[in-house]
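Encode chain A's predicted structure.
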Amino acid sequence: MQSEIRLAIKSDAYEINRVSQHLGYSALSDSDVSGKLSEFINSKSDEVYVAECSGKIVGWLHLFYARRLASDNFFEIGGLVVIPDFRGQGLGRQLVQTACSDHRGKIRVRCNETRVESHQFYERLGFRDSKVQRVFEKRL
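Encoded structure for chain A:
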């Protein structure tokens, strides 16, 4: 299978939204995704990579630069998804490797504790479990 990993462009928004539904989250409207993607493309601290096969986007990775006041800055994978029919073919690995090769320093990823397959995937790529934490939210 011939695939290409590249930075996302604005016209990818619809396809990214379609692929995102495989994350298990509620679908966003096309206009919401288009607006978010435009923000990321214009951001100096965010990048979105896509995996494209035969002209269709089958996966994406969002990477952002996390600045910290009292500790080292780092890059973080904010999201990674490959549609089920294309999993196990190395596309997720290619997305992560491309993001890593384009940046120097520490790269982190957070996974829900229930996503055991994701934990195993990142461990195979050399990531190590470094922290357990709880996430608190409040709507304002």
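Strands lie at 3-7, 46-53, 56-66, 74-82, 107-109.
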